[in-house]
Amino acid sequence: MLNFELYNPVNYIFGKGQTEKLTTLVPKDAKILVAYGGGSIFKNGVYDQVKTALTGFDFIEFGGIEPNPRFETLMKAVHIIRKQKITFILAVGGGSVIDGVKFISAAVNFEGEEADILKKRILFTDLSKVIPFGTVLTLPATGSEMNSGAVVTIGATQEKLTLGGSALFPKFSIVDPTVIVSLPKRQLQNGVVDAFTHVMEQYMTYKHDAILQDRLAESILQTLIEVGPSVVENPSDYKLASNFVWSATMALNGLIQKGVPSDWATHMIGHELTALYEIDHARTLAIIGPNLYKIMFETKKEKLAQYGQRVWNLTGDSTDAIAHQAIEKTVEFFHTMGMKTKLSENAENYKETADFIVNRFKERGWLAMGEKQNITLEKVREIVEMSY
């Protein structure tokens, strides 16, 4: 097992009716910015719950944070916070809103060009340099409610880039599974596949001796396979909803990544597809992931076979045979979850995509990636072309 440090200070508050606890969680003397997205919180009752809980508090609102939050939009909030001397931010929404708030938190006191936070992958570790924030989760998928990472899109350059650091954990996150009942089917499908692929990025590498970590990852995958298709059709079922929501958090709260290698190349490539074509994040992962496993088969086949045996109960005459079946089962699951797993099914004028992504990675100096740093730019090209 690899050396690791585990730090997660988030006060995670789970269950029905927990939004009312905002009254005791938000600092009494804070001047608050309540940030949200496109208005779904007005349809599912969350806005009213938050507003009631904040009765007597000093707060202003900032709406319009997009799916795949835009740097340009977030900077408007940064300017408001500076002008209004806001001392606390409350993110009310899904992963995009929470990611956006993490950027806002980091950018307010940043000395320099704010876009460099993304372009230079700056890590924030000094709590005195960021604005504290909490979250009320409305869409489970990204795990952003219990981690310190974020992804933000720079619209002007069509780049989807990351930021993070130990200072960017939420102070608290309220997670009520009942709110998913109002979500569109497509968003629920995306949430399941996003969480599933988060686990795979940390699990689908090579055999190692971190036995417990593998078992934890496999249990999350099995749970998502069990509840995913059903929760999309019946999100009002609390058993399904609660297990789905908790699985999405556990997939990316840092626990299963400790002591093990991880990949993340599927995400790096997928982010480019979202930036270029506005394809939903989860759907880019469904396009790229299985083809990455095929191109990198020789270095991942031992783990693919383990995954096939333990998660899908597959049998076969050889490691190779089980590993190939495991990839097929993954694609089948993505199809069951409503994913179209070819780029040509999700975008037009895609034939130059591989060249564009390879050139962009080259410009950034991203010459190799993956758990063994053996996913070269030529491999990236093969993965993307296989995904057409």
Question: What does it look like?
Answer:
The protein is α/β, with parallel strands linked by helices. It has 15 helices and ten strands. The strands form three sheets. Strands 1-8-5-4-2-3 form a six-stranded parallel beta sheet, with helices on both faces. The chain has a two-stranded antiparallel ribbon with strand order 6-7.
What's the SSE blueprint?
Elements lengths: L10 E4 L7 H4 L5 E5 L4 H4 L2 H8 L4 E5 L8 H14 L3 E7 H13 L8 H4 L13 E7 L10 E5 L4 E5 L8 E4 L9 H19 L7 H23 L4 H14 L13 H13 L3 H15 L1 H16 L6 H18 L16 H12 L3 E2 L5 E2 H10 L2
Parallel strand pairs: 1-8, 2-3, 2-4, 4-5, 5-8
Antiparallel strand pairs: 6-7, 9-10
Summarize the structure.
This protein has 388 residues and is an alpha/beta fold. It has helices at residues 22-25, 40-43, 46-53, 71-84, 95-107, 116-119, 185-203, 211-233, 238-251, 265-277, 281-295, 297-312, 319-336, 353-364, 377-386, and strands at 11-14, 31-35, 58-62, 88-94, 133-139, 150-154, 159-163, 172-175, 368-369, 375-376. It has 15 helices and 10 strands.
In DSSP terms (H or I, runs of 4 or more residues), the helix count works out at 15
Q: Quaternary arrangement of the chains shown?
A: single chain
Radius of gyration (Å): 20 Å
| Number of strand segments | 10
Distance N to C terminus: 37 Å
What share of the residues lie within helices? Answer: 40-55%
Q: In what range is the share of β-strand residues?
A: 5-15%
- Structural class by helix and strand composition: alpha/beta
Order of helices and strands: EHEHHEHEHHEEEEHHHHHHHHEEH
Low-confidence stretches: none
Q: Based on CA inertia axes, which overall geometry fits? A: globular
Biggest β-sheet: strands ordered side by side in the sheet: 1-8-5-4-2-3
What is the residue-averaged pLDDT? 96
Largest sheet: 6 strands, parallel
